[in-house]
Design goal:
Layout: H1 2-51, E1 68-73, E2 79-82, H2 97-105, E3 107-114, E4 119-127, E5 133-141, H3 143-149, H4 151-189, H5 203-246, H6 252-284, E6 293-294, H7 296-313, E7 317-324, E8 327-328, H8 331-347, E9 354-361, E10 363-368, H9 390-393, H10 402-412, E11 416-422, E12 426-432
Helix pairs in contact: 1-4, 5-6, 6-10, 7-8, 8-10
This protein binds adenosine-5'-diphosphate.
Adenosine-5'-diphosphate (ADP) is lined by residues 344-345, 348, 368, 370-373, 381, 386-388, 393, 398-404, 427.
Length: 434
């Protein structure tokens, strides 16, 4: 960002200054040539008045100057007098625009450019009382040759501007972004924005970062507390049964039952730890652009097959319909997402229920005929360890982490999740991929 601001300021500085030079020179030249034309007209009129006092046209020589030509032309175009011998082609002058205008209206002017010598000739002509036309002219540098003669100065100016612009833009940028650089330290030390004079406009952003941070901190604490609690429960059971066996308080036939309970609780813990590890893996995964396409329908079919045995045990039928466009993503993660949704649709279904998996375009919908989710719980089901009404879900094994994993994977893929549910009627979860 710093580099971008420096460059922008630098370009703005240089472009403004160079445009300024060009505009000033052109405008200045415009004034200058207008002034010159006005003076020329004025001088021509004075000369026309003096003309009556001259005894012969040749006396006009007294008024000529180094850069001031005088020409006297007859009504038919014949040149009677020309002060500049070199330019004095004695050809007929009637076709000159200023002469023609003077003959017709009393006065006329014209400007003629000479590309070869880079000059402009200004002409002004008036009709005299005797019908002849008196014309005066001066020569000036053209705007281009003016630029040419100023080239060195302009170049030096541009170099100066480039140097000044680069120094000023670096300094300005430093000043501009200094407050931004102070933000991390400020957040660390818990200083207020006013204390270190950060821009007023940044305060809402800082406030938002602070809120997000404290929310994160709260979530971390909740998570640790939840994990400890969830692990403590099976460990208490395990250690209780182990103690019974250790003290010889368990009858021989009970030992098998207790060992089974210990194994079940250990299995539960393993699932829980597996889910926690998976979540932390997903947490640290950077969002990337997935190069591969995944066939959603094939993934859904694979999950249906893997869970068909569990579904059959409860008499649940799973249907799969529709067809999908390939979606960009990670096959393993998408499989995990579909598996978790289908697993829940089986777990929270009624005996002999129905599950419909439908795929249309990039959307997967899993609809079940289960116990449903109360309206007020819907927004919370993606939270870690959240389980709707613990007693209700008690018979159903779960960690409360499945949907958190689903949400993580969906976010990771930029997919949107929608939930529709009615208690005792069923639940429909839609995942729309990008
Ligand atoms: P669990 O391991 O408990 O299934 P999840 O994160 O997968 O955890 O789900 C969170 C809670 O959301 C579940 O405990 C359950 O109460 C509710 N839930 C999820 N899916 C369904 C469903 N298809 N029907 C009814 N309730 C559901």
């Amino acid at each position: 960002m710093e580099r971008k601001i420096v460059l922008t300021l630098f370009y703005v500085g240089v472009v403004t200054a160079v445009t300024g030079i060009l505009i000033t020179t052109t405008v200045y030249y415009g004034f200058f040539s207008k002034e010159m034309k006005d003076n020329l007209a004025h001088e021509c009129r004075i000369l026309a008045r003096c003309y009556d006092w001259l005894s012969s046209p040749d006396e006009l020589i007294r008024f000529t100057g180094e850069n001031f030509r005088i020409t006297l032309i007859q009504t038919d175009g014949t040149v009677l007098y020309e002060s500049d011998a070199a330019a004095g082609t004695m050809e007929n002058h009637l076709n000159r625009p200023e002469v023609q205008a003077a003959v017709e209206t009393g006065a006329g002017s014209d400007t003629r450019y000479s590309d070869t010598i880079g000059t402009e000739d200004y002409y002004y002509a008036v009709r005299l009382d005797d019908g002849n036309v008196l014309r005066v002219s001066v020569q000036a540098d053209s705007v281009f040759s003016l630029f040419e003669s100023m080239l060195l100065i302009i170049l030096l100016l541009i170099i100066g501007i480039v140097i000044v612009s680069s120094i000023v833009s670096v300094k300005l940028t430093d000043n501009l972004i200094a407050p931004f650089k102070q933000i991390p330290g400020m957040l660390e030390k818990n200083q207020t924005p006013q204390e270190i004079c950060v821009y007023e406009e940044l305060q809402p952003l800082i406030q938002e970062i602070r809120t997000a941070r404290s929310k994160q901190e709260q979530m971390r604490q909740d998570f640790t507390a939840n994990v400890s609690h969830e692990l403590k429960t099976p460990l208490t059971v395990i250690s209780g049964y182990a103690e019974l066996i250790e003290n010889g308080m368990a009858k021989t036939e009970e030992c098998t039952l207790f060992a089974q309970k210990i194994r079940n609780e250990s299995a539960r813990m393993l699932v829980l730890i597996g889910d926690i590890l998976r979540l932390s893996e997903l947490d640290s995964a950077e969002r990337s652009d997935f190069p591969d396409y995944v066939n959603l329908a094939a993934v859904a079919e694979e999950c249906r097959e893997r869970l068909s045995h569990t579904a059959r045990q409860r008499g649940i039928t799973i249907t799969l319909s529709g067809s999908s466009l390939p979606v960009r993503g990670d096959k393993e993660e998408i499989t995990e997402l579909v598996y978790n949704l289908l697993d829940n649709a089986i777990k929270y279904n009624r005996e002999n229920g129905l599950i419909e998996m439908e795929i249309a375009d990039r959307t997967l919908t899993v609809t079940d005929t289960g116990i449903g989710i109360p309206k007020e719980s819907i927004p919370r089901i993606f939270e870690r360890f959240y389980r709707v009404d613990k007693s209700r879900s008690k018979m159903v094994k779960g960690t409360g982490l499945g949907l958190s994993i689903v949400k993580h994977i969906a976010d990771h893929h930029g997919a949107e999740i929608k939930v529709e549910s009615a208690t005792n009627a069923g639940t429909s979860i839609m995942v729309r991929f990008r």
